[in-house]
Amino acid sequence: MGDVAVLPPGALPEARPATSARELAADFTRGIWRENAVFKQMLGLCPSLAVTTSAVNGMAMGLATLVVVAMSNASVSAVRNLIPGSVRIPAFVVIIATFVTVVDLTMNAFAHELHKTLGLFIPLIVVNCIVLGRADAFACKRPLPRAVCDGLGAGTGFTLALVVLGSVRELVGFGTVFGVSVFGAAYPPFLLFILPPGAFIVMGLMLAGVNRLQSRMGG
C-alpha cells in the first residue's frame, strides 16, 4: 500500500485552487458564440420563433431567460452535493420553476403590457432546454462562480439571438427597430415577416449567415 497522508487533529485539508479569471471568462463567452443556444445548438426555438415579432419582445424574453438560467445555475451549484443523483432532474425543475415564478410575477407587476404580450411563454421557461440543460450538464458539476458565469453567458447569447431575430423581423415587417422608424412613414409594411412564416425565413437566413461566418473563421 502506498503512503497515505494523515492530517493532524484539527488540521484542515489543503484548499482547492481558486477559479481563475480565464476560466470564468471562457465559461461566459462560450455561450455567446461557440455554443450559442439558438444559432449553434438549435435550442429554445419555440420562444425564439414565437415571440420575436419585435426587438422589444425578443429582448424581454431573453432577459427573463437570462435571469432564470443564471439564478438556477447558482442555486444548483450551491446545493449540488445535497441532491441525490436519482432525483436531480425533478430537483432542478423545482429550482427553475421557483425563479420562473419570481420573474413572471415581477414582470406582471412592473411591465404588465409586455407580460400580456409574451403570455404563456414566460411560464414555459421552466421547460426550456437551455435552462435545464445548463443546470444538468454544467452547474451541478462546477463551483458557484463558474456556474454563474456559464448561466450569464448562455442567457446573454440567447438574448442576443432573440434581439437580432426580433430586430430583423420588425425592421422588414414595419420599418422600425425598438419602435423607432428607420425607413420613414412611407415604408409599406411587409407583414409576412411578422407572421410565423417570416420567423422561419429569418431564422433560416440567420443560420446560413452564422454557418458562413463560422466557416470563414475556421470554426
Structure report:
The chain is an all-alpha fold. It has one domain (37-217). Helices cover 60% and strands 2% of the residues. The protein has a two-stranded antiparallel sheet with strand order 1-2. Residues 1-5 and 11-15 have low confidence and may be disordered.
Give me the strand/helix succession.
Answer: HHHHHHHEEH
Spatial strand order of the main sheet: 1-2
Rounded Rg: 21 Å
Amino- and carboxy-terminal Cα gap:
48 Å
Q: Can you count the beta strands?
A: 2
Low-pLDDT regions = 1-5, 11-15
Helix count, per DSSP?
A: 8
> For the residues shown, what is the average pLDDT?
89
Report helical residue fraction: 55-70%
Kindly estimate the percentage of residues that lie in beta strands according to DSSP: under 5%
Shape: globular
Largest sheet: 2 strands, antiparallel
Counting helices, strands and paired strands, the structural category is mainly alpha
Query: What is the total number of structural domains?
Result: 1
SSE arrangement:
Elements: H1 21-30, H2 45-50, H3 55-78, H4 88-110, H5 112-118, H6 129-137, H7 144-174, E1 176-177, E2 180-181, H8 196-217
Antiparallel strand pairs: 1-2
Helix pairs in contact: 1-7, 3-4, 3-6, 3-7, 4-5, 4-6, 6-7
Highlighted features:
single chain, 219 residues, mainly alpha, two-stranded antiparallel ribbon, 8 helices, globular, disordered N terminus
